Amino acid sequence: MFKKYVAYLVVCMAVFFTACTSTKKIIYLQDVVPLKQQEIEQKYEVIIHGDDLLAIMVNSRDPELALPFNMPMVSYQLGSNTGGQQRVLGYLVDTNGNIDFPILGEIHVEGLTRMQLTELIKNKLIEGDLIKDPIVTVQFLNFKISVMGEVGRPGSFTISGDRITLLEALSMAGDLTIYGRRDRVGVIRENNGKRTILFHDLRSADIFNSPCYYLQQNDIVYVEPNKAKSGQSSINQNNSIGVWVSVISLLTTIAVLIFK
Question: Are strands 144-149 and 220-225 parallel, antiparallel or unpaired?
Fold first, then answer.
């Protein structure tokens, strides 16, 4: 009777500690204090890079004055049963970081934020006595990020605005699967001809201070698989079999102790 009690206790403890360990591995932001307000240190604005496609719209109280500075609208149809759609043509930033803007000519835009480019064009229009009251709007047309690895829906995603966080991107991709490593989420980024990769631990609030918490256009998010996933691959098939053999042996031993 005593042996049965000990065996039962061992099994319960094993299940308990396994559950605790598994939970700690998958919970996000474990060190965040609930209801405690934190100052947002990063004031993030997207920087314009080469190959960005920009929509730049100029308006004025007199629409005729603004007309020469605007790209035409292009109509297109997605399918035979759908109505026509319209979109504005964009300005492609060349390899030198410039765009060719109507009347104003070549403008260097690389390294500027949307607001900085807005003010630059507005000032040029006023100083050139072209429009006295210009209203300029700048938007990204090809702000895209990609998510790959152990997520529910890997793929590329086009962002309607110009601000998205790492957590939001993972949410769009269906969150991490049970096989994704929460402590090993990488962001691959290219800047000024250099490629960097920075890994993050989603279980820690330190992620909010990462330079990659706010994603940039063309960032790639990669979620590494954990050991359980690796054990299921064909390369590690023998290791997976060994694990199952060990589990079966343990269960057999416990059963013998209980029913002996």
Answer: parallel
* Distance of alpha carbon 78 from alpha carbon 185, whole angstroms: 36
pTM: 0.70
Residue 21, token pair as written in the block: 């360990």
* Distance in angstroms (rounded) separating the CA atoms of residues 199 and 223: 9
Assign 59 to helix, strand or coil. strand
Domain harbouring 125, CATH code = 3.30.1950.10
CATH number, domain containing residue 178:
3.10.560.10
pLDDT digits (tens, 9 = 90+) for 187-230: 999 887 889 999 999 999 899 999 999 999 999 999 999 887 65
Would you put residue 97 in left (φ > 0), alpha (ψ -120 to 50) or beta?
left
Long-range contacts of 130-133 (CB under 8 A, 24+ apart): 130/65, 130/69, 130/103, 131/58, 131/60, 131/62, 131/65, 131/66, 131/69, 132/60, 133/60, 133/61
In a domain, 213, yes or no: yes
